[in-house]
Specification:
By secondary structure, the chain is α/β, with parallel strands linked by helices. The chain is built from seven helices and eleven strands. It has a single domain, classed as Spore Coat Polysaccharide Biosynthesis Protein SpsA, Chain A. The protein has a seven-stranded mixed beta sheet with strand order 5-4-1-6-10-7-11, sandwiched between helices. A two-stranded antiparallel sheet has the order 2-3. It has a two-stranded antiparallel sheet with strand order 8-9. Strand 8 and strand 9 form a beta hairpin. The radius of gyration is 17 Å and the shape is globular.
């Protein structure tokens, strides 16, 4: 089946204390977003990629490509005001059938093995969402009271979140809602069962200065 990657990169960098959008911050000599994009081409040279960015940042991306001699074919797509709208815009730019891996632009440490596993599972089940087990105890809060809950019943959700293309395109026809925080929640709301697979603790999302430090160390291993 034809494989697509839909990379969503619209962060502002507020929590990382940066005037530069966080996807363009340098990480071990390259912008975060370039690490992410290259990870998918390291998985397969044949993958078709749509990169969703604010239109005002197309020029920044083109400058990065020129500076780092990056010449892979990528379709740039204007994002929306929300992640939901940005993903929907990206999906609308993909025609035909196949599988699509939707991934955060600021998860630069995703491995080829993880990407490949997501496509293999989605080919069988129609959905494949990376997740990891919780390492620490958790408590549920309710105003002034808290209670311990069984952490084994919960998972931390990552990307890639990979789907049959027609399944997720139809799912994104539902009404947008703030509770739909990722693609899995959209597919679930549309009536589909979500299949989880084992992600990686290295597959971190860079949102704070501490994340940058951790990512740099992991890349340097």
């Amino acid at each position: 089946m034809k494989e697509y990657a839909l990379i969503v990169a619209g962060g502002r960098g507020t929590r990382i204390n940066s005037k530069l959008p966080k996807q363009f911050i340098g990480l071990n000599g390259k912008p975060i977003l370039l690490h992410t994009v290259e990870a998918f081409f390291n998985y397969s040279d044949k993958i078709s990629m749509v990169l969703v960015l604010p239109e005002t940042e197309f020029g920044i991306w083109n400058s990065i490509c020129a500076e780092f001699n990056f010449d892979k074919e990528i379709v740039l797509q204007k994002g929306g005001d929300t992640r939901f709208q940005s993903v929907k815009n990206g999906l609308d730019n993909i025609d035909g059938d196949g599988l699509v891996a939707i991934h955060d632009g600021v998860r630069p440490l995703v491995s080829a093995d993880l990407i490949g596993a997501s496509f293999r599972l989605a080919a069988v089940h129609g959905t494949a969402v990376a997740s990891v087990r919780l390492k620490e105890s958790i408590r549920e809060t309710d105003q002034d009271t808290t209670r311990s809950v069984d952490r084994s019943r919960f998972r931390l959700i990552q990307t890639p979140q990979t789907f049959d293309l027609q399944l997720i395109k139809k799912a994104y026809q539902i009404k947008e809602d703030p509770s739909l925080t990722d693609d899995a929640s959209v597919a679930e709301r549309a009536g589909h069962k979500i299949s989880l697979f084992e992600g990686s603790y290295k597959n971190i999302k860079i949102t704070t200065p501490e994340d940058l430090t951790v990512a740099a160390a992991l890349l340097g291993e």
